């Protein structure tokens, strides 16, 4: 009689990818491109007395996004909406208050894919072509992807009409919308006006920004070998936990990693909201230029995606076992850079 | 598992009488103490401990394949059974009863040769031999 | 190779040391002495909200979290540990997109 | 006692009897001699299974064989020239049939009432040709949302005519159908309806059915 | 046959209906349990007196032994929470069952759970008792012998085995019984068709679904089974509970 495992249990695993290199040909940008829906951005600036204004501004002004409650998905497929917004500029959207592991979720990626993650029942009564999800081997969840930008997706075509009236059967969802107009003279709030005319209740949401300075902090210098301890210290610092000050304390045996220096002031900035990868790109450029003109030991940028998004990294399916996080940490200093990618595991649960 | 129980103070013919249920309870209490509710629950299915032979102080413990690790990790900590100070030594862990009994037989064979070499007179040898072999392997575990 | 848990304790307010002590006793209760020696650190403790961030090694994580769920009593009165977020990357405990109100 | 061939040819009807008499006298045991004369009127059949071989009469063929039907392609319905609105009186006819089929029950039973089962059995045994079926859920996805009047029902498929005057074949196994009658909505789980319509009225369906795909 | 979604918790005992059910239901909904079942138990002992006094009085009083299901008035704030009615029958002999099945209230329940107390009762549940959930009493050791053949017999009939974590939190002997039975299910039938439910009596025992998944790992389930224990198997139980006798079923418009 086989008896169950009672000694060492395996924790649910996740995937970590680390990439290092010289700052000249860094490809942080294509990692940023991969994560389309970003929720939380935090920056750590050691040894800075005054944070330059343009860092705080990049993610604050004209970064509003809109929350539209109970929208039918057929609105998003209607052709003049596609021509007006999805084809021009960068349009991303995400359904909120829905859990990826037990409800149906929706998200739109910048390259014009409308992706739905549906349970078995809704998929069967929806009637659009979809693939069973990789994580559930008993076919409990399906992913339907509709390419909005493909040229045969026009009214009059059989595929378009069928999608439009089949999407009517889906229940209404609350959406987050973030649109970046192609060129500057169009104001980004025209998306809100479009939905306002259709009598949906639209809310403007501003990303909330926090800044904090900590004094006399022992900061480890950024070396290429112990990446994990460095990232762990970043977490400790961002959460303001005690960084192993005095001797042996009963509570925590954590010590800052060894080669560290003492700095007077360390700044911590955090934005929370709904950001597109272009906005994160702009922030990274500003940080690189800031690093060039002021001499700094290093600068770190942490971006966390949404945990209930249908597609994690560049159209790869995302799932939520006990934690659904996908994010990356970028650390730069004058010569080299490091990207620490953290993704959900790819194994389907048996 | 075949276990030898050595009491602290040696009786003259070094035999030790322990009723099996108390030996079972002692083991269970120690596992509960060291491995908590989870350990006690894990081994309960198919766990039996029987004290076989007073003279050779051998006991046999049966457990399922996974939880047997719990028992081997607990045995050195058992100090006191039925209010007698003892120390446990695991002699043999085998997968089948036959293997255990085969081991016990040649274990006793070795014991007899030891004792015979020390004793000179003939009739003492014969008495010890048949006392040790009284143990019959057909006794099944409860 | 570490796992981080964001835990809050329901019902009475309790100091950091007592908090860690109660976790150790509940582990001992469920998994015994051997498991009570699991090395875990209460990295951050916020007495106002009674919310803590705990760091535990990856192979003890399942037993640790199991004993947290099975802990029901503190000094006779019923209590409960609510685990808000769990992640192998400490930075992701900064915020949870599920509970964020836009 | 060996019989020579002459005995047989010379005997006429009554000499056969005499010959039989002697035969019995010799063979039968002494004690039964007295009853011998009572035996004269009983007839003995000596040939065991002789059967009257009549001429086999072939029954006249009522209907074309399946091969002939295939040649005349009666089996397949024509694909084109269906008129959806022409079928409306067939739909009315079917509704009429269903109504008097169902008004045997004064009050339509709910799940708790005892006569729920036999209400269902009458439904299961009724005919579906002429019903207005829509597919609400189905494993193969492009069947979902189809609607039409059932024109032919086979063991594994419904053949319906859609309002756009096309003949569509719907597979029963992976899908769930509904049809409405006045104010009641009926759902049919296809995978339990895989029975030839002729047998459906006879066959007893008594298994536990999971309402799931 | 509406679709049921989200995480499932099939054992909210009727004791917590008495004291402020609103915030328990609210807390359950926020944690993610979108479908719960209020559990009413019939114990065989209290049935005894009702039968015996029936004989004494020689009058067949039509008192229905099955309590009528609690109709869940829509709880303020979480009307989305789907509330089912579950009946748990704990019995030692077979003849009680025939009386229970005949009572009109019996058919009003969505889910039927069987809790056999003796070997003969266990044999009866395996062969011909239409139950959806097979539960056990955590406070006493099971007095029936489980075998691999009987386990698979129940699995084919679509019966799901229930493990409660509520009593495991309260008391250590219950915890030992629950863990031992869970490991027994693993060793007999590779813990197939297992659902984990709360069995809570007060609001302190509710745990969020991801804790329960982690607890499933401790009970000897694999990670896929642990996730199914509170998600897909719950849906199968609901489907098994609402089996129809004919392939045509109907609803008022």
Automatic annotation (TrEMBL), chain A:
<dbReference type="GO" id="GO:0000171">
    <property type="term" value="F:ribonuclease MRP activity"/>
</dbReference>
<dbReference type="Pfam" id="PF08584">
    <property type="entry name" value="Ribonuc_P_40"/>
</dbReference>
<dbReference type="InterPro" id="IPR013893">
    <property type="entry name" value="RNase_P_Rpp40"/>
</dbReference>
<protein>
    <submittedName>
        <fullName>Uncharacterized protein</fullName>
    </submittedName>
</protein>
<dbReference type="GO" id="GO:0030681">
    <property type="term" value="C:multimeric ribonuclease P complex"/>
</dbReference>
<dbReference type="GO" id="GO:0000172">
    <property type="term" value="C:ribonuclease MRP complex"/>
</dbReference>
<dbReference type="GO" id="GO:0000447">
    <property type="term" value="P:endonucleolytic cleavage in ITS1 to separate SSU-rRNA from 5.8S rRNA and LSU-rRNA from tricistronic rRNA transcript (SSU-rRNA, 5.8S rRNA, LSU-rRNA)"/>
</dbReference>
<dbReference type="GO" id="GO:0001682">
    <property type="term" value="P:tRNA 5'-leader removal"/>
</dbReference>
<dbReference type="GO" id="GO:0004526">
    <property type="term" value="F:ribonuclease P activity"/>
</dbReference>
From TrEMBL, chain C:
<dbReference type="Pfam" id="PF01900">
    <property type="entry name" value="RNase_P_Rpp14"/>
</dbReference>
<dbReference type="InterPro" id="IPR038085">
    <property type="entry name" value="Rnp2-like_sf"/>
</dbReference>
<dbReference type="GO" id="GO:0033204">
    <property type="term" value="F:ribonuclease P RNA binding"/>
</dbReference>
<dbReference type="InterPro" id="IPR002759">
    <property type="entry name" value="Pop5/Rpp14/Rnp2-like"/>
</dbReference>
<keyword id="KW-0819">tRNA processing</keyword>
<comment type="similarity">
    <text>Belongs to the eukaryotic/archaeal RNase P protein component 2 family.</text>
</comment>
<protein>
    <submittedName>
        <fullName>Uncharacterized protein</fullName>
    </submittedName>
</protein>
<dbReference type="GO" id="GO:0005730">
    <property type="term" value="C:nucleolus"/>
</dbReference>
<dbReference type="GO" id="GO:0001682">
    <property type="term" value="P:tRNA 5'-leader removal"/>
</dbReference>
<dbReference type="GO" id="GO:0030681">
    <property type="term" value="C:multimeric ribonuclease P complex"/>
</dbReference>
TrEMBL record, chain D:
<dbReference type="Pfam" id="PF01868">
    <property type="entry name" value="RNase_P-MRP_p29"/>
</dbReference>
<comment type="subunit">
    <text>Component of nuclear RNase P and RNase MRP ribonucleoproteins. RNase P consists of a catalytic RNA moiety and 10 different protein chains; POP1, POP4, POP5, POP7, RPP14, RPP21, RPP25, RPP30, RPP38 and RPP40. Within the RNase P complex, POP1, POP7 and RPP25 form the 'finger' subcomplex, POP5, RPP14, RPP40 and homodimeric RPP30 form the 'palm' subcomplex, and RPP21, POP4 and RPP38 form the 'wrist' subcomplex. All subunits of the RNase P complex interact with the catalytic RNA. Several subunits of RNase P are also part of the RNase MRP complex.</text>
</comment>
<dbReference type="InterPro" id="IPR023534">
    <property type="entry name" value="Rof/RNase_P-like"/>
</dbReference>
<dbReference type="GO" id="GO:0005634">
    <property type="term" value="C:nucleus"/>
</dbReference>
<dbReference type="InterPro" id="IPR023538">
    <property type="entry name" value="RNP1"/>
</dbReference>
<dbReference type="InterPro" id="IPR002730">
    <property type="entry name" value="Rpp29/RNP1"/>
</dbReference>
<dbReference type="GO" id="GO:0030677">
    <property type="term" value="C:ribonuclease P complex"/>
</dbReference>
<comment type="function">
    <text>Component of ribonuclease P, a ribonucleoprotein complex that generates mature tRNA molecules by cleaving their 5'-ends.</text>
</comment>
<dbReference type="GO" id="GO:0001682">
    <property type="term" value="P:tRNA 5'-leader removal"/>
</dbReference>
<keyword id="KW-0255">Endonuclease</keyword>
<dbReference type="GO" id="GO:0000172">
    <property type="term" value="C:ribonuclease MRP complex"/>
</dbReference>
<keyword id="KW-0540">Nuclease</keyword>
Automatic annotation (TrEMBL), chain E:
<protein>
    <submittedName>
        <fullName>Uncharacterized protein</fullName>
    </submittedName>
</protein>
<keyword id="KW-0819">tRNA processing</keyword>
<dbReference type="InterPro" id="IPR016195">
    <property type="entry name" value="Pol/histidinol_Pase-like"/>
</dbReference>
<comment type="similarity">
    <text>Belongs to the eukaryotic/archaeal RNase P protein component 3 family.</text>
</comment>
<dbReference type="GO" id="GO:0005655">
    <property type="term" value="C:nucleolar ribonuclease P complex"/>
</dbReference>
<dbReference type="InterPro" id="IPR002738">
    <property type="entry name" value="RNase_P_p30"/>
</dbReference>
<dbReference type="GO" id="GO:0008033">
    <property type="term" value="P:tRNA processing"/>
</dbReference>
<dbReference type="Pfam" id="PF01876">
    <property type="entry name" value="RNase_P_p30"/>
</dbReference>
<dbReference type="GO" id="GO:0003723">
    <property type="term" value="F:RNA binding"/>
</dbReference>
